[in-house]
Amino acid sequence: MAGLLDVVMLIPPLIAGMVVGYYLRGKKLLNSGKLLLGIILMLIFSLGFSIGSNAELLAIMPSVGFNALVLLVMALLFSILFVKAARKLVGV
Amino acid sequence: MIKYVLPALAAGILAGYLNNNFGTPLLNTVFSEYTFNLSLIALLFLMGMLFMLDEKAVAKMREAKFRILVFPISVALGSIIGGLFGGLILRIDLFASMGVCAGYGWYTLAGPLAGQLFGLEWGALGFAVNLLRELVTVVGASLFIKLDKYAPIAMGGATTMDTTLPIIVRYCGQDTLIIAFSSGFILTMAAPFTITAIAALAR
């Protein structure tokens, strides 16, 4: 289980990137899009790898699949509706 | 981008599955931990940098200020109420249904925690609901963006601070970086507490 500490560890790299970006303002970075895509694909591949190698996780999917699908669809539906309504309310 | 993301995800799942059956645990550590964490850190650094370089995005963020807090609050409420209605449709335990949906996509937390609080079968459901939430966000962001500019942030829940962040920024725009990250961060922090609180109410 990923701990809360791992979560907090994601803030320093984000802030460091923002500080570097602040000092590089006005400069155009070449090929940042390609680099970004490369790293994204690495992340998604390793996400898939950790799912694929989790045998217990894969084994339970068929038996709980339908209930999971219904709960997920409802959670997604209401999340989107609430965000849409809240945005109208506060004007973001 | 989806035409690259989907094959990468499928290849990862297949590689992980094959490695688990025929390979070595060492490869699992390399990909599931080292590559995962390193690419995440590199990604957050790069995206923070690109955000600050984009002066329009920074100006938009300054203007929004604390109003961005409506995102995690709406997603938390929407997920829990969605869980309630889902439980009603399926005629299963309503508190446990709300509890597993209060994982907001964080399946490594929601699985074990729901298992402990509501019983083993709910642990399996907690895993499945939240893993699917992450996968649907990765795969469906480009589609659901048509419903609302911020729909992918609502879908991603807690995962919008890490795994789904690059995809959200790609489709929702550079100016949504801070909204998505802060929403994911707050929901990640809130998930263990809301799941536990719902379980406490059930007793």
3D architecture notes:
The complex is a heterodimer of chains A (92) and B (203). Chain A has 92 residues and is mostly helical. Chain A is built from four helices and no strands. Chain A has one domain. Chain A is extended and about 55 Å long. In chain A, 38% of the residues are buried. In chain B, 82% of the residues lie in helices and 0% in strands. Chain B has ten helices and no strands. The longest helix of chain B is centred in the N-terminal third of the chain and has 29 residues. Chains A and B meet through helix 2, helix 3 and helix 4 of A and helix 1, helix 2, helix 4, helix 5 and helix 6 of B.
Largest interface: A-B, 73 and 97 residues
Q: What shape does the CA trace of chain A take?
A: extended
Cα-based radius of gyration of chain A, to the nearest Å: 20 Å
Total helix count of chain B?
10
Q: How far do the termini of chain A sit from each other?
A: 35 Å
Task: Give Rg of chain B in angstroms.
Answer: 18 Å
- Unreliable stretches of chain B: none
Distance between the termini of chain B: 46 Å
**From N to C, what is the helix and strand string of chain B?**
HHHHHHHHHH
Low-confidence stretches of chain A: none
Number of domains of chain A: 1
- Main sheet record of chain A: none
